[in-house]
Design goal:
This protein has 10 helices and 8 strands. The chain is of the alpha/beta class. Strands 1, 2, 3, 4, 5, 6, 7 and 8 form an 8-stranded mixed beta sheet that branches. It is flat.
Length: about 325
């Protein structure tokens, strides 16, 4: 009797469903907050991307407007700095637009190639040399090469297109030659007991493989190719220097000379730096740099765009969106 009375008097919970319901509500609320936070994060990233893009557009537009204005008389300077190669600062991709801009600017009284380069790609140098000659044929302007530390190999290939070449007495000039280098490890592999397993389709496909013995026929083929490129280099120098070149047996041997010696053998025309050429030769002391350098705004936008792109991808993936 008492037991039944106690059982009836004690209220029982409606069930465990209310606990689960409460937990689910908390979880859904937290999930919604996380999704909202992701959306705001994505929004701000896209907002700043638009802002940076607008700034870059304004900078580029301003530069374009400045380029269309007629400038006062000056000496145009284009730097040929470092290794001449595709993708480098001293590449045809960067040098050619600077050349065209300098030639087309009515205020530029003369163009100076300020050179400090050990050389590089004969292809890039050839493209630049050809464009200098083409532009000289279209515009009544002279081009001067001014050598600082070094003007060797492909750098001299470019300098040969100039009307005159000025150097410092201690500059290094010349190196009119072509090279192709590499390493061979066959002896070392024999000592280590390493067997080379190489399969090719085409008997010359593995030419210059450093782990295979050098083939004499392939070596002769490559030497003939280097000799051909060397002759192209020689023709460019002879065409550019003309009767000023005092050719001897060492002129095209790959030797390098001091600036003083280069003046003596006709590879250069005189001693002088940029200021001297601008003041005394071109007669326009004001110097304007036309060198194409990466725009700071474009670089920042590219970096910011990459980070935003990564953030968008992560946000979309976390939200269950598939980017295919």
């Amino acid at each position: 009797m008492n037991e039944d009375f106690n059982t009836a008097a004690t209220p029982r919970p409606a069930g465990a469903g209310w606990e689960r319901e409460t937990i689910e509500k908390l979880l859904f609320a937290q999930l919604n907050e996380q999704r909202a936070a992701r959306r705001w994060k994505l929004f701000f990233r896209l907002f700043w991307l638009v802002v940076i893009g607008a700034i870059v557009w304004l900078v580029v537009k301003a530069e374009g407007m400045a380029n269309t204005q007629t400038s006062t008389p000056h000496t145009a300077v284009i730097e040929i700095e470092g290794t001449i190669a595709a993708g480098a600062e001293a590449s045809a991709e960067n040098v050619l637009p600077a050349l065209r801009q300098a030639f087309e600017d009515e205020g530029a009284q003369g163009i100076v190639l300020l050179i400090n380069s050990p050389g590089g790609s004969p292809v890039q140098a050839g493209i630049i040399n050809d464009e200098i000659r083409r532009l000289k044929g279209l515009h009544d302007k002279k081009v001067y090469a001014v050598v600082e530390e070094t003007c060797a190999s492909a750098a001299y290939y470019i300098a040969a297109a100039a009307d005159d070449i000025y150097v410092d007495k201690a500059s290094l000039v010349g190196s009119i030659g072509v090279l192709m280098d590499g390493f061979g490890f066959t002896g070392l592999m024999d000592k280590l007991g390493v067997e080379r397993r190489l399969m090719v389709a085409g008997e010359n496909k593995a030419m210059l493989d450093p782990f295979s013995p050098q083939d004499e026929a392939q070596k002769a083929y490559l030497q003939a190719m280097l000799d051909e490129i060397h002759l192209q280099f020689i023709d460019v120098v002879k065409q550019g220097r003309g009767e000023r070149l005092k050719q001897n047996g060492d002129t095209f041997s790959g030797l390098v000379w001091s600036g003083q010696q280069a003046v003596g053998n006709g590879l250069a025309d005189g001693l002088g730096n940029l200021d001297f050429v601008a003041r005394e030769v071109i007669k326009a002391e004001e110097v304007v740099d036309y060198t194409q350098r990466e725009n700071l705004g474009l670089r920042l936008a590219r970096q910011f765009g990459a980070s935003v792109g990564e953030g968008v991808f992560k946000a979309a993936r976390s939200a269950g969106i598939q980017l295919r």
